[in-house]
Amino acid sequence: MPPDRRRVLVVVALAQLMVVLDATIVNIALPAAQADLGFGDADRQWVVTAYSLAFGSLLLVGGRINDRVGARTGFVTGLAGFAVASALGGWAPDFAVLVTARAAQGVFGALLAPAALAILSTTFRGTSDQGRAFGVYGAVAGGGGAVGLLLGGVLTGTLSWRWCLFVNVVIAAAVIAGALVTLPPAQARAGRTDWPGTALVVTGLFALVLGFGRSEVLGWTHPATLASLGTGVVLLVAFVFAETRAAAPLLPLPIVRSRTRGTSYLVMLLAAVGMFSMYLFLAYYLQRTLGFSPVLAGVAFLPMAVSVAVGSAASGAALVPRFGIRLPVTAGSALAAAGFVYLTGIGAETAYATSVLPGLLLAGLGLGAVFGSAMSSAADGVAPAQAGIASATVNTTQQIGGSIGIALLTGLSLAASGTGGEIAGYHAAFWGAAVALAAAAVVAGVLYPRPVREPRYQEEKS
């Protein structure tokens, strides 16, 4: 890989790591933050929800802004804003400031994440290093949450919960310096703004994510949950209808209609259901049932991070170039499903090495193959002027998938634990995750087009 491309990959991977870390690193710090700031259990969820609401609802808008101002400008602006928001959260003297800072992190993360993927897509598209680059990116996207659990435990245990936010300032400063030196100047593009589409998709995604969040606390049949979910669905249907008639649509529908890209978006949604639920339920199992400390629980996830990296690298660098995208995504989804099925064998006194580790490794390898392959096609074939919105679409499906997974599997787990005990709840959650990954395998196997084999050079000359 040429040095200039390698530097771009390092900068983009570090930025993506920072965004992914924040999905899990604060979870470990929550008990300490709650004790320090004195907020109640009912308020605790908003420290996590404020980030996911802002991030999930604004990703498509962030992608379009990147297409307008240029990915480099969006990338650096997102980094700077994320760092300022993180510093505010680390300093937070009370609950209100902490939640405000988390929401601001989500806003700038929604600008940063699609910019990172767009830069990667345009830099490596059509090169011999494309598979390797997306393998690295997929490893970060799939395994960064495990690193966040470890880092959160270490920082909370050795320094303070506040450093789970301050650490972003250090990372962002280094990445900004690298971006200013490495990335080419941004190319701004004029264009009209799809204000009706923007309003519909932002409010629709906000209502949908809020509804899934409310279901965890209020239940699926509560009027507030049903109202949020219903409003979200209606507004998103209206958004799709509006985009078919907009002169300059926020999300040009041909981006989604592509068989390869559309399948990748659906696969990423299903894969996120399993991935995010693993971090949540297995972290609870390791600490509450097996008695692991936060730091030890983080260490226990490291083999998964390594296996994600291996699966992603192998898929991006070797399998996709040789077999196309369908085989590695289908096989990876099936392997991840097998890993979740293995985890349904955990018990109250089982050993980590025999009952948890094999499942982690299987799920990690499979998820790595899915992320490394599916993300490489997120902006494949789109014009550079639309790379940002295409990249934002795959990030949006991943975020929505995570929200759906946590909400659905939490409800499934609570129902099972109410009749069969805590372990039965974990079993139900992992069975649900396995079903989601099995569905991803079916979707990939059926919907991805067959790979077109290029004729060999000798055949072309004859």
Automatic annotation (TrEMBL):
Keywords: Cell membrane, Membrane, Transmembrane, Transmembrane helix, Transport
InterPro entries referenced in this protein's UniProt entry, alphabetically: MFS, MFS_dom, MFS_trans_sf, TAT_signal
Domain of life: Bacteria
SUPFAM superfamilies the record matches: MFS general substrate transporter
Location relative to the cell: Cell membrane
Gene3D superfamilies hit by this protein: MFS general substrate transporter like domains, Multidrug resistance protein D
Protein name (database record): MFS transporter
Annotated organism of origin: Amycolatopsis heterodermiae
